[in-house]
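Design review, sub-item: ligand-bound model
Attendees: FS, YL, KQ
YL presented the inputs for the adenosine-5'-diphosphate complex:
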Amino acid sequence: MPRTPAVLALDQGTTGTTALVIADDGRVLGRGYSEFTQHFPRGGWVEHDADEIRDVTVRVAREALEGARNREPHSVEAIGITNQRETIVVWDRGTGQPVHRAIVWQDRRTAPICRELQEAGHEELVRSRTGLVLDPYFSGTKLTWLLREHPDLRERAEEGELACGTIDAWLVHVLTGGAAHLTDHTNASRTLLYNLETGKWDPELLELLEVPASLLPDLRESAGDFGLARGELLGIEAPIAGVAGDQQAALFGQGCWEAGLAKNTYGTGAFLLLHTGTTPVSSRHGLLTTVACDPEGGRAFALEGSIFIAGAAIQWLRDGVGLLPAAPDSEAMARSLEGNDGVYFVPAFVGLGAPHWDPEARGAIFGLTRGTRSEHLVRAALEAMAFGTAEVLEAMEADSGVRTSELRVDGGAAGNDWLMQFQAGVLDVPVRRPALLETTALGAAGLAGLQGGVWNTASDFLAAQGEARLFESRMKPEERETFRRGWSRAVEATRGFRPG
Ligand code: ADP
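KQ shared the predicted structure:
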C-alpha cells in the first residue's frame, strides 16, 4: 500500500503548542496539543521555560505522529515550525542549554530601555530601518536588558560562547541536536535588529541595542533548509523545511501571498495583516511594516495592525460580568436583536491600538437606556470587533493605496456566523472563512510542504484545503453609515474621558 505523503506542523504558541500531521490532500491525520507553564516573576514580567517548551513540543509532536500512524500509513516528508513571535531565548553553544528563562513578547520590563532610546532620539532610525516602533513588545531590548543585567553573560556573548534566537530558532536548535542555528526573515523582522531593505541584521542597530553579532542566527527564507530533525526526539527523521512567525504563517495558510490580500485573526486580540507585495510600505497610520511570504515562501512584505481586545471582551462579559455561559452563546444573543438600539461598547481595557494609539484610554459603554438588556451588551462586544477591524483595514488601504477585495478570517471568534456576516456588512467586502480554522499550523505545513515536495505550488497547497464559507454583505449603505458614525463617536467619547 502506498504511503500518504504528509507534513508535521508545529505551532508553538504563547499558552500552548499544537502539532498537526497534515496529508497531501489536506486531511489532518493526527494532532496533539498541550498547554505549558506561564511564569510571572514580577509585575509586568512574563517568562517561559525554554526546556519545558522543548519537552511539550516534542510530546505533542509524538502524539500527533502516533495518531497519524494509527490512522493510515504515511511518510512525513517535511517539518514546519510556526511560533509565538518576539519571545527570546539565549543558550550556551557548548552545552546547548538555555542560560535564562525565555523573555516573552508580553513582558514589559524593557519599557525604561525603550524610553531611554526614544529620549536619545533613535525612534526614527529604528522605525525607518525595521518598520517597528520602540516598544518592549519586540525582541531587541529584551537582549539589551539581559546583557546589561548579567555582565557574565555579556562577557560570554562577546567570546562567542552564547547563541540567541526567537522560539523558532530554539526549536530548530533542539530538533537538529544543536547542528543548526537559524531563523527565518519573518521572525527576524520582529527583533528590532533586522533591516527590512537589506534583509540582513543591521550592524548599526546591533550597536544601538548593545547586541554582539555573534549571538545571532543565520537567516533563511521561510520555505528553506533548516537542517534535519533527528530521530531520537521525534521518533522520525525529517528535514525542517518551513519556518514563519505565527501571524505570517496564518497569512500564508490563508493563501494571502500577493499584494492586496488580507487576513484577520479573531482571538483574544485581533491581528490583521495586509500583504503588500515585494516592497515594504511604511505606515502613516500607526501600523507596522513586517516581512511576509511570497507564493514560493520567499521574502515579501505586509502591513500589520493589532486590536488588543477582541474576543477578550466576550470573555470579560462571560467571566467578569456573568452575562453569558459560554462564548459561542454570544451568537444567538446578538441574533435575537433587530439592531444595536444605539448601544456601543469600546473595550479599550488596555488602551487603544492601531490606528488610534491611545495607551491611556479605558473601556466604555454608551447609549444605555432602561430598555438595554444583556443581549445589547454582548452584541455591542461583537460589533466592536467588526468596527475595530474596519478601522485598521481602512488605515492599511490608505497606507498601501490598495483596496482589499476580500477579508480572510480565522481564530476562535471567527467561528461566530453572526459576527462574520456583520463584518462583511460593515466592510462591504466579502469575508472568507476556511474549513480549518487552524491556519497558523496550516501555514507552517504549507511552507514546509512546498520546500519538501509535498505540494508543487502554493495553489496546489490551497486547493488541498476544504471548502471555505463566504459571507457577503447584506447591509444597506445608510445602515452601514449609521453604525460607523456611532462607533466613531463612541471612540471619540472614550478618548475624551480620563478617570481621576
Ligand atoms: P487565542 O488564540 O488568542 O487564545 P482563540 O483563537 O482560541 O484565542 O479565540 C478565543 C477567543 O475568542 C476568546 O476570547 C473567546 O471569548 C472568543 N470566542 C470564541 N468563540 C467565540 C464565539 N463563537 N463568538 C465570539 N467570541 C468567541
